[in-house]
Write a sequence for this structure.
């Protein structure tokens, strides 16, 4: 019952907080080899806690010598019960620059109703709210209203390089009816958000070269195609005046927004004033037929992330540079295929460069977009859970960013997802990362409500 689980959570809140602080003290920085043992210690700490609260089959699973996935389950809700796959990550970002922290990153400190520590919000705090919700049900009520499988990743902050292979290899073990992830940010403390779509991403690097060395522009200017100029010409040709990407085939598979969805997105409280405040840019740019929020979340994009070439020092140096380069990333939407877009991009760059320069393109591993129906029963349960436990009805929206693991789960398991963030900006990935204690406790209660409503809606 919701009531017994919620009162158990409230009665044990101080203990939950103590456990949370102990968890935060483990410096599980996955990017730094010197923390390899700490990452494992965090996995073992979690596994012990999961075992203690009555989860079963708790084990550390490894793939390609990476950091272990912590797995556990509880599958006694009944043969027709919904099975939730709960995903989170126990690794954290590096803490530097250390000098900017007001208290040491791995000595969690409470100030102004917030816990300050690396990982406090991303993702230890948010996933711990979820885990303590399970504890509140299991210890308070003796059972969970739904079946639950847990998959806690130790390499998310490195881009989860082994997760695609892991999910493919453990498809049967991970089989579930929906995925649940508590990560990311709400609009503000009193305005939760449920993102039902994420964009995909492809990143590429272009190298242009011409003469064998930097040349004297007085001697050779006018006779050599300057690589910086050739690259600038290419980049200028990638969009038209309306912001449309000019790569042939780029839009072929792009879905069109339904009227119902455009109405839903228009109900999201996001104004041009807000956009101006966030970006500081002088005026909006982009596809005129779409609102700012649609451009930022529901449309594919191509961005130049960086560009280099030639002399950058003080004063003059009259040369024709030997080479130039740029980094480009593209955000993809539903139905676009990351591999196909990578090929179209590469072919377009190679075909459009004149023979007066040499060009090469490198494309990194991409990720597809992910989308789940915004009127699914899982999202309906989440809306109800936030409304009652958080005290505010969440908006449903698209996110502009990418979470490749969600696309992986969708591809391999073919199931809907629910993103249930309990955080705010919280200085995630920055010094003085923190998590509001009120979000920690409200997160626990929201998750408790969610599991119960999910069971109710199902029957
Ligand atoms: Zn992160």
């Amino acid at each position: 019952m919701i009531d017994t689980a919620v009162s158990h959570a409230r009665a044990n809140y101080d203990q939950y907080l103590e456990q949370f602080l102990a968890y935060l003290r483990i410096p599980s920085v996955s990017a730094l080899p010197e923390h390899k043992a700490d990452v494992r210690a965090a996995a073992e700490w979690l596994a012990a806690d999961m075992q203690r609260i009555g989860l079963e089959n708790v084990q550390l699973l490894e793939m390609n010598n990476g950091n272990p996935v912590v797995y556990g389950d509880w599958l006694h809700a009944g043969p027709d019960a919904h099975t939730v796959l709960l995903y989170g990550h126990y690794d954290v970002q590096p803490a530097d620059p250390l000098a900017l922290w007001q208290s040491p990153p791995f000595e969690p400190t409470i100030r102004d109703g917030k816990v300050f520590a690396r990982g406090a919000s991303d993702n230890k705090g948010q996933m711990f709210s979820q885990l303590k919700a399970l504890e509140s049900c299991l210890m308070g009520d003796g059972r969970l209203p739904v079946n639950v499988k847990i998959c806690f990743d130790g390499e998310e902050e490195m881009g989860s390089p082994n997760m695609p292979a892991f999910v493919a290899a453990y498809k049967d073990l991970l089989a579930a009816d929906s995925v649940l992830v508590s990560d990311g940010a709400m609009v503000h403390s009193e305005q939760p958000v449920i993102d039902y779509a994420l964009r995909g991403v492809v990143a590429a690097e272009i190298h242009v070269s011409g003469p064998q060395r930097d040349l004297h522009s007085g001697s050779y200017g006018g006779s050599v195609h300057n690589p910086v100029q050739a690259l600038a010409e290419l980049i200028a040709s990638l969009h038209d005046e309306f912001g449309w990407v000019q790569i042939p085939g780029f839009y072929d598979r792009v879905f069109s927004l339904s009227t119902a969805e455009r109405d839903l997105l228009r109900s999201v409280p996001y104004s041009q004033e807000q956009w101006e405040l966030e970006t500081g840019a002088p005026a909006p740019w982009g596809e005129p037929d779409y609102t700012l929020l649609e451009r930022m979340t529901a449309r594919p994009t191509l961005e130049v992330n960086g560009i280099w070439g030639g002399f950058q020092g003080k004063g003059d140096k009259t040369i024709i540079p030997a080479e130039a380069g740029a980094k480009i990333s593209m955000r993809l939407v539903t139905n676009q295929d990351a591999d196909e877009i990578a090929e179209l991009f590469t072919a377009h760059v190679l075909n459009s460069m004149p023979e007066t320069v040499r060009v090469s393109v490198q494309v990194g591993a991409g990720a597809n977009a992910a989308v789940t129906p915004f009127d699914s029963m899982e999202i309906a349960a989440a809306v109800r859970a936030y409304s009652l436990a958080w005290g505010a009805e969440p908006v449903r929206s698209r996110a502009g960013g990418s979470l490749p693991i969600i696309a992986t789960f969708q591809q391999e398991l073919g199931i809907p997802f629910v993103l249930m963030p309990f955080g705010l900006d919280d200085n995630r990935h920055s010094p003085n990362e923190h998590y509001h204690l009120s979000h920690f406790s409200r997160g626990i209660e929201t998750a408790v409500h969610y599991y119960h409503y999910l069971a109710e809606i199902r029957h």
Observations:
- The radius of gyration is 25 Å.
